[in-house]
Each structure stands twice: as structure tokens, then as C-alpha cells.
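User: Could you check the structure of this?
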Amino acid sequence: MAPSPQRSRRIAVFGGAFDPPHAAHVALAQAALAELQLDELRVIPTGQAWHKARPLSPAAHRLAMARLAFADLPQVLVDARETERAGPSYTVDTLRELKREWPDAELFLLLGEDQARALPSWHAWQEIVQTAIICVADRGDGAETQAQFSAPKPYESRFRRLPMPALPVSATEIRSRIAAHQALGPLVFEPVARYIEDNHLYQTA
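Assistant: Sure, the predicted C-alpha cells are below.
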């Protein structure tokens, strides 16, 4: 979809391990496309994750699964740049690159609640907030969830809520289910589940 002449191109960044990508990831992408009127949503699997204690699955697998998971959303592009970058993978570097590539674009960064609460611990987080509008997934879990996160001062105007369905699913649960030989049900889409089985991923906890 081409951007209208009345506004700048709108590009959202959706980063994460995607190890594996699951139904809640796709639901967040769908909500962002609808709510933010995006021209493009870039799904960017993490490269060397500085903040994760466990090793990630090889980048080639995570990229392949992401392409399968988001295949039905034409505005979504799976972007491999962080997996190709040497050293720790920082979101601010990705936003800097996109800003150089699209200097007039309006950038958005999609985050879950946990990521949003941890944002002040991220590398150069103030620059992240100044570069992109931070869109925090609101999973519709009620007032308690709403109260858990509040935008850091003085950047409140750079944050917005992104309503989406309540989907209690996590990649950690999926990996545990696979290791325990339990059914995945609707947690991951069938092409991703088939890829996991064909490549014998997550066989051990």
C-alpha cells in the first residue's frame, strides 16, 4: 500500500527472539496494521540478544519461522538485519538505520507490557523514545494490567496503547510443550508447527 501524499510513510518495528513466533505475535502485528494505518511493518528477529540468559535457536530457523508465521500479512516484511549484525543486538541501532533509510518516515516500535516496563534499562533508551512512538500492547486483561505500566516521565506523549485480543501464550510455554511432547493446539500456526517438527527444534527443555 503506497503512502498517501498527505502524510509521511508509517513504518513499525516489531523485534523479538521469535523463538518460535506464535499466535500472539501475529495478533499484535494485525492490531498494529489496523490501528496505526501502517505502510509497512518490519518483523526483526533478534541477533545476539544481550538481555537473554539462554542461547537462541539459530537465526536461519527463526527467520524461516517468522516468514511462515506472517506470510498472510502483505504489509509485513521479515527483516534479517539484526541477525546479520556483529556484536550485541540493540534496538536503537536498528532505529538509527531505518531513520537513515527513510528520513521522512514516522517510526513506531511495538512492545509488550514486560518489554515496555524494562525499556528504561535498554541501551540508549531515551534515543529510542525520541526516534519512535512506543506502542504498548494492551491485551485487554483488565484494569490491573493497565495499572502495571506507566510511561516514564517526561516522555508520556511518546507512548500509546495498542488494543489487541487477550492471548495468554508465550514462546517459553510453547518450547516447554514441545519438549514434553504435548500438543500445541492454536498456539502456533500449522506451517510453523510443521517447520518445528521437520527440523526437530525444542526437543529438550
